[in-house]
Each structure stands twice: as structure tokens, then as C-alpha cells.
Amino acid sequence: MVVGLTGGIGSGKSTVANFFKAFNNVAVYIADKEAKKLMANSQTIKTELIALFGEKAYVNNVLNRDFISAIVFKDKQKLKQLNAIVHPEVKKHFKIFVTQNKNKAYIIYESAILFESNSQDQFDVVISVCLDLESRIKRVIARDNTSRKKVLARINNQWQDAKKTLLSNYLITNTVLEDTKTQVNSIHKILTKRRA
């Protein structure tokens, strides 16, 4: 069974993913982390990104993340093109991960843009992590040492929680850490039983 785990920026989905990772019968794939690795190491992606963004896309053979981010946050078309280059490679990579972990009770695919990339139908179950907007903004400002304006721009690039909730099988409200852990444990029990 493959489970999609998502949540808006600053909602705490990485914390939730780590709670799931603690179970020895669960494998967790962090799409964003793997995408970054692929963007750094895949010759296919490298060639296509240079064709799309120009030579500045890589500096000394290292991905110029700030340069690309500055472009795609202002240009939705370029963001679409970037995703069209990276997502198919991540999908291929994830298929290998699933094969390697087929003995697990279930596999979690964690992605901030699960719905935005229209991937929800690829999963047997979808879990969304939610947190109120103000808390999310504060968290991201503290974590990324950035401005409120920049955080809101990123939030506005993602679906609103209400929309995600309607399409999710389970909802985790990440306000108090102990409660979050309890919710994760309950979902884990249900998913493990479903597999059995």
C-alpha cells in the first residue's frame, strides 16, 4: 500500500513523516529531498534545466537553487516547466524505492505539492497535515529566516487546506506535538490492519 502525505509549507509534515519513519514496518520517501538530489546528480535533469534557465542554472556544476527559485516564484509557466522536467524523474526513482520496500506494511510518499501536481490518484490513501495560517507563517519565518511577504507568496502557490481536506482520507492537526503523535499512531494502526 502506498500512502501520500502532504501539507502546506510550515504545517509540520516533516515532523509527521519522522513519526511514521519511527515505525520499523514503514518506509518513508521524502519527494522534495530526493528531487533535490536528482537535480544535483541526474545528467538528464541537468541538461534540461540548463536548456530552460540558461547556463546560470548551475554554478561550478552545482545547482543554483536561489537563481531558479527567484524565477519560478514569479513565473508560473516556468514553474510548470521545471516540474515537467523533475517530476517524471522523481516518479521513476520512487518506483525503484517501492520495489526495494515491498516487504513493509506500507510506504509513505511525502510531498508538499501532492495535489498541486495532480498526483493524489496514484495513492491508496492520502493524509493531509494541517495547521492554522498564522502558526505556519511564524514557523517558516523562524525556520528559513525570511519575510512574511515571501512566506505568503509561497503559501499562495499551494492549495488551501480546506481544498486538500476534502480530497484526503485522513487529517492530522499538528498543533500540539503529543496530540500529533497520537493521531499518527491511530492512523498507523488502521493502515497496518488494512494491510493484514
Terminus-to-terminus distance: 11 Å
Percent strand: 15-25%
Instruction: Label the structural class.
Output: alpha/beta
> How many beta strands in the DSSP annotation?
7
**Low-confidence runs of at least 5 consecutive residues:** none
> Share of helix among residues?
55-70%
Major beta-sheet overview: 5 strands, parallel
Return the string of H and E elements: EHEHHEEHHEEHHHEH
Mean pLDDT figure:
92
Outline:
globular
Q: Helix count?
A: 9
As a whole number of angstroms, the C-alpha radius of gyration is: 17 Å
The neighbouring-strand order within the major sheet is: 2-5-1-6-7
Account of the 3D structure:
The chain has 196 residues and is an alpha/beta fold. It contains nine helices and seven strands. Helix 2 (31-41) packs across helix 5 (76-100). The radius of gyration is 17 Å and the shape is globular. The termini are close together.
Features of this protein?
196 residues, alpha/beta, five-stranded parallel beta sheet, two-stranded antiparallel sheet, 9 helices, 15% strand, globular
